[in-house]
Amino acid sequence: MKKIRLLLMVICVAVFCYSAYQLLTIYFNYKKIDETYEEIAEEYTAVEEEGEDYLQIDWNSLLSRNSDVKAWIQIPDTNVNYPVLQGETNDTYIHSDIDKQELTAGSIFIASENQNPFIDINTVIYGHNMKNGSMFHDIKSYTEQEFADAHPYIYIYLPDGTVSQYKVVSAHIISDTSTLYNTNIVDIQGFYQDMMKGNDISVDFDQSSQMPVITLSTCTSGGGENGKRNVVHAVLERSQIDPQTEKMN
Fold first, then answer.
1. Which of 221, 217, 228, 205 has its CA nearest to residue 94?
2. For residues 209-239, b (16+ Cβ closer than 10 Å) or e, as one string?
């Protein structure tokens, strides 16, 4: 009996140590993610008055660090505030940071299939759904009308120093093989109709506008293993905004 109790005690201690190790690994992993992106934001962006002014971005320094940076994405009052990169393939930045160093959360990145990001009718932007609330975690909340009403706009800062404002018009869960990931759109009206199917929110949208769309995509709570993705579509409402002279809506 003593041997059995001793064996059980050893097993319990081993399980506890392994669990503690796993928790510490997760903690330090998320800490690294937060520190990495806090450092980037502090180094390359500034804002004079929080909530009213656009970000001021040091594009020269940021592009010197990595020319794969194509934009900066911001959704006010959320955790979405990151550089947007585009690699040679969709694997380039899926688990790599801006310096191409390994990072579980990876980077926010544009689909490699997009030949002309933000000019193409559909620019697809990917980001992980991290449990600590970072990256594109907040995207899944757009399926709730109250959240969508409170966060109607997505801002894309471009290397030419201007900002584009996109209006969120659709949010839903789709298959990872959906045609809504198509970046070579010929039938704009047909694409608009498809992206509004199964829409979980109600937003006024002029489907005759023929304006470009950004499609933000992240894994569902199941980690994407079920082949489903949380997706938000936003239509260009204003472009060529000068962040030096204008206030944010």
1. 217
2. eeebbbbbbbbbeeebeeebbbbbbbbbbee
**At residue 6, what is the residue type?**
L
The residues, ordered by sequence, that sit 6+ positions from 59 with a Cβ below 8 Å of its Cβ are 159, 161
Positive or negative: CA dihedral 241, 243, 245, 247: positive
Distance CA 122, CA 69 (A): 18
DSSP string across 154-223: EEEE-TTS-EEEEEEEEEEEEETT-GGG-S--S-HHHHHHHHHTT-SS-----TTS---EEEEEEE-TTT
Nearest to 150 by CA among 164, 163, 135, 138: 138
Q: Are 217 and 181 in contact (CB under 8 A)?
A: yes
**Cβ contact 88:112 at 8 Å:** yes
Grouping H, G, I as helix, E, B as strand and the rest as coil, residue 234 is strand
DSSP 3-state assignment of 249?
Answer: coil
163-175/228-241 β-pairing = antiparallel
Q: Kindly report, residue by residue over 9-41, the tens digit of the pLDDT.
A: 545 444 444 343 343 344 435 566 678 888 999
pLDDT digits (tens, 9 = 90+) for 150-189: 999 999 999 999 999 999 999 999 999 999 999 999 999 9
How far apart CA 189 and CA 223 sit, in angstroms, is 32
Length of the chain: 249
Alpha-carbon radius of gyration of the chain? 21
